[in-house]
Predict the 3D structure of the following.
Amino acid sequence: MAQQIRQEITQDIGSFLAQLSDLGYEPTASLYDAQAFGNYYVDLRKGKSWLRIGRDRSQYFVDVESKDELRDAGMLRAFDDRGAFENAVLEWLRAA
C-alpha cells in the first residue's frame, strides 16, 4: 500500500482495503484515534477521484467530493454492519 496504515485499521478492514486497491484506489492518508472510541479514517485516491473510508463510534461510512453522488447511490448514510458496508461500497464502485 502506498501509505502506512495503522495495525488497528488493517485488523478491522485490511481485506477491504486490498479489494479497493484491486480497483485502483491507493491509500494516501489515515488517522486512528484510540482515545475516541477507536475512530479512524483512510483516504484513498484513484487518479483524480478520492474517497474516505471511516469508522465513527463503530459505524462505517464513505465520503467523496460529491454528496449528490453519495445520495444518488444510497451511500449517504452510516452502516452498523461492516460486511454490509464493504459490500455496498464495492458494488457502488464497480457499477460507477
Summary: The chain has a mean pLDDT of 94.
